[in-house]
Specification:
The chain is an alpha+beta fold and about 240 residues long. It contains 6 helices and 15 strands. The protein folds into 3 domains: about 50 residues, RNA-binding S4 domain (Structural Genomics Hypothetical 15.5 Kd Protein In mrcA-pckA Intergenic Region, Chain A), CATH 3.10.290; about 90 residues, 2-Layer Sandwich (Alpha-Beta Plaits); about 80 residues, Alpha-L RNA-binding motif (Alpha-Beta Plaits, 2-Layer Sandwich), CATH 3.30.70.
Length: about 240
């Protein structure tokens, strides 16, 4: 197995981050620094990161979590604020979030130690859809606003792709549902701001084929083999 893939399968980091660790000279094989992520290794190659042996591939797991507002989508926080990792008992596995939800947002987020799967699910070229329930400030949005979001809007880092948008909650509701397949920072909030509306509440309700249904805020569940297989099929 290639060294970069070996580290990712061991739960050290995503494939891309593992390659950065290797390039930085932090990885050794049989005591020698190796900077080539394509180097072939196995469990008998004595791979180490910063001098600490890598035991080999961990069992691959994926959890679905309903992230509450106020919790950070990160592995650790320098200010000791709550993170998604603290809400899932890892049993010694090194989990990290797949994609992010900002601190003021809630909803479905995945945690895994499968770096390759995480990288594929968040890479733009695989176009994995994510659906959000959004409550807008200022009353019910006009059809012109909804059409603008559907067509894609101009942001400071370029135009967004077209989105699926519908009004939810009945006539006069200020809530919409929006589905996108990009993963830019705070993208849904920025899209709404671009059409003149402020987001008061934002919740991710779907990630690919997975739904938030049945998960209370702060609750989690481990995905079954069939669910993980459906996720992998999205990113082939």
């Amino acid at each position: 197995m290639r060294l970069g893939k070996y580290l990712a399968h061991a739960g050290v980091a995503s494939r891309r981050s593992a390659e950065q660790l290797i390039a930085a000279g932090r990885v050794t094989v049989a005591g020698n620094v190796v900077t080539d992520p394509a180097r072939d290794v196995d469990e008998d190659s004595h791979v180490a990161l910063d001098g600490k042996p890598i035991a080999g591939p961990e069992p691959r797991v994926v959890y679905a979590l309903n992230k509450p507002v106020g919790v950070l989508s990160t592995v650790r926080d320098t200010h000791d604020r709550a993170t998604v990792i603290q809400l899932v008992p890892a049993a010694g596995l090194r989990l990290y979030p797949v994609g992010r939800l900002d601190r003021d947002s809630s909803g479905l987020i995945l945690l895994t130690n499968d770096g390759e799967l995480a990288n594929r699910l968040t890479h733009p070229r695989f176009q994995v859809p994510k659906t959000y329930r959004v409550k807008l400030r200022g009353g019910s949005p006009s059809e012109e606003i909804l059409d603008a979001l559907r067509a894609g809007v101009q942001l400071d880092d370029g135009p967004t792709a077209p989105a699926r948008v519908r009004r939810v909650g009945g006539r006069g509701s200020s809530s919409i549902e929006i589905t996108i397949h990009e993963g830019r920072n705070r993208q849904v909030r920025r899209m709404c701001q671009a059409v003149g509306r402020v987001v008061d509440e934002l919740q991710r309700t779907r990630f690919g084929p997975l739904s938030l249904d049945g998960l209370a805020p702060g609750a989690h569940r481990r995905l079954g083999k069939a669910e993980v297989a459906r996720l992998r099929a999205l990113a082939l």
